[in-house]
């Protein structure tokens, strides 16, 4: 092929990969972990309950090979329904229920993907159409799975969610994973928060997705302090696909298209907005493209409104042979890969603007798309996903959310046999594994890691497990530079990443934990000035706040600090840490990036003589508003005994 300006077009190259990457990227490869996560009976007695769209029980990710009998503490069941018999459960998939009609079978894919991410069995030779090939395994491949189908075509209804959580508590799950969320309402009106409170009381770790409404601020859901709120970051894996233009310029995008490649030459290229009579023709919405104008051409579509894969389907239906999909300002440079129905690539906003200028101004624009397969060791990695919802916390500004971030971009996990990888009705393909993105994917990573920690430390409370995951998370790359936010290209902040990116191998031995009990959370509700009927709505008990006591949100024993400042002065926060690492002398190190906020900690040294000993300290944030620049500033408080580093993020907001 000789085209002016094209230097070379490389053939498809198949890279050999291990895992669907997450376990390796998180340091969980089999060999190093026998001592961290012993393969004892206890490690396979942890049950992860997943509230989602159900399960595809035939998936190899739910094979029970090598697992012992169902834990004796399990009280759950397997409910028969449409195309689902009780015999489909086994020693891996030990429970399956549905709320309210139908069956536990997953016709969507989402629930099969999340449950296999948390605790899927080891499956060799997994891939999506050859992409990301390797060995798939959940975060805790020895844990048991119980699914509660609460999401249907019309969505997930709070009455079903609440009923399912109550049932899961009764069934005796140890971890609850909920990749769902809606809106931002007060805790006493929020079904997920109310259900999660009861679960927390019974020692169940509850993990929820932060939401996909980023990068705008105040976009979080599931912010109750008794819930672990998980945002999304990337792995170091990518699926490059090149947009080649007739003017000799090439732009790297991403794609999971598998099928016949485009002919070995550049093809006519048209902007969708010029191939449509609709005002939003550039978006490639159903029925908006004029077939005569797109037949045989590559079509450029802009991102927004309808699903990315649907745009490709619309181009294909109108006779187009390929698509270049351009991000707009809302998504910036974030590249999310899709199993498109035709040769297509998604490019970032900057490349999109240049390509759009070319297709609109060149008298004879031509283009092609080259799919390149899978690459790993992409740098920098991880970065915060643009779609990941951001703080500040709009319900309780003095509790920092999200809590942490985990892998949530281009994640390979098991899929339903009832829908294709795009989920479109027109997609006839069927795959055992699919690659999708969202905080729905990062949440079950943390649920599965919590199950792992629970198997190593069965005595730890949900708050202790979350504390261990948060205080050991990392906020910088190996070179010490801060983790970037793909939305801005600049360093991310605690409102984006919370305590940082999860680091499970260190979390087994965090040194100190910030523990919390039901009584602490009831005091938190008192600090919010909830009425007794509002407290009853959340906690489902009669509880009266002590009128002689001063309740303060600042004293909830949370592993992070959010300070809402309304003028100069001193803001005091109290914390209590419990030694889980035995004796040790911990010294504090404080950083504050703003001269307007001085952070002091007393005492500055905590001496522990034995395991489970508790010590308290007070943090004073002294604010000089005259020096404040901008609306937010950040810092950290770190305790270290030379072996462990117990880190807490600090976020300060001027109101």
UniProtKB/TrEMBL annotation:
Keywords: Glycoprotein, Hydrolase, Protease, Serine protease, Signal. GO terms for molecular function: serine-type endopeptidase activity. Residues 555-652 form the Subtilisin-like protease fibronectin type-III domain. It holds the Pfam family Peptidase_S8. PROSITE patterns: SUBTILASE, SUBTILASE_SER. Residues 44-478 form the Peptidase S8/S53 domain. The active site is at residues 52, 110, 440. GO terms for biological process: proteolysis. Residues 283-354 form the PA domain. It comes from the Eukaryota. Belongs to the peptidase S8 family. This is Subtilisin-like protease. It comes from Brassica cretica (Mustard).
